[in-house]
Design goal:
18% of the residues lie in helices and 40% in strands. It is of the alpha+beta class.
């Protein structure tokens, strides 16, 4: 479809998927910001752009709503899987996708109408070395490390799943508030020890196999859910001995199922929904420079 778009969400974390080869405008940072604007554009937490790949069945570039680029997104990959099926690009229940954060394997579940309703994604290995994020802190691993945020001395675990995460863990029975997220999220995202910025999760165990998280995404801000954030938080909590795999990770938007094996290879499973398919209007295309 010329100048077409697909919109979907995973637990309230919404993305717009497009095929750049069918667009009359470029995915420049200003255009991305306009499309993602919830008042002047379609509104979304980011854009998923289909790319050719010589290493996987499909290629994917992921853009944040501020125009920057992300390496990987768990919810984005589930939405991308539904987009591929809904637009007739595949009918396979299993395929591979190349992202900037590595190649992932995806397996989808179809309903009676043939629509993708959930997907399981092999998210790769969780890594804790500073160079993987990157982070300038000198440590063998970023596990339970100190970090100064304003006048607060906190501790974090740094996790890379092809994209970078800063996980702050509290003990069972404690809580995190949204006010803390809104204060700590932007400060940690732009903390000087993270030269490429970072995704932030405030996490607390709620059972032997359960975790609750609040999420601040790099380039997007507060989000209702995030697949890679759920994976990072589960990996950090398993590493700390606070929970055991498999882990149900709950966020304000809903729950994802995360498996962390002894080598910290991570598998994520969760639902996905389609919202709309359509085309950009002629007037909006002019705003986009088409």
């Amino acid at each position: 479809m010329r100048n077409g778009f697909f919109k979907g969400h995973g637990l309230g974390n919404d993305y717009i998927a497009v095929d750049p080869a069918q667009l009359e405008f470029g995915l420049t940072p200003p255009n991305i910001r306009l499309i993602c604007d919830r008042h002047r554009g379609l509104g979304s937490d980011g854009i998923l752009a289909l790319e050719p790949s010589s290493r996987a069945d499909f290629g994917l570039r992921i853009f944040n709503p501020d125009g920057s680029e992300a390496e990987k997104s768990g919810n984005g990959l589930r939405i991308f899987s539904r987009y591929l099926h809904a637009t007739g690009r595949t009918s396979a229940e299993g395929f591979t996708v190349e992202t900037k954060g590595g190649i992932v394997s995806v397996r989808v579940v179809l309903d009676a109408q043939g629509d993708v309703v959930s997907a399981t994604v092999e998210m790769g290995q969780a890594r804790f070395a500073p160079s993987e994020l990157p982070c300038t802190l000198e440590a063998a691993e970023l596990v339970d490390q100190p970090i100064q945020v304003g006048d607060r001395q906190l501790r974090f675990t740094g996790v890379s799943l092809g994209n970078p995460h800063c996980v702050l863990l509290r003990n069972p029975g404690e809580t995190w508030t949204r006010d803390e997220l809104l204060a700590l999220g932007p400060a940690l995202e732009n903390h000087p020890i993270f030269p490429r910025r970072i995704n932030v999760q405030l996490a607390v165990p709620t059972g032997a196999h359960e975790l609750f998280i609040l999420i601040w995404e790099r380039g997007a801000g507060e989000t209702q859910a995030s697949g890679s954030s759920a994976c990072a938080a589960a990996s950090a909590a398993v590493r700390a001995g606070l929970v055991r795999s498999p882990v149900t990770v709950r966020a304000p938007g809903g729950a994802l199922q995360i498996e962390v094996d002894p080598a910290f290879n991570v598998r994520m499973s969760g639902p996905v929904s389609e919202v709309a398919q359509g085309t950009f209007s002629r007037g909006f295309l002019r705003e986009l420079g088409a």
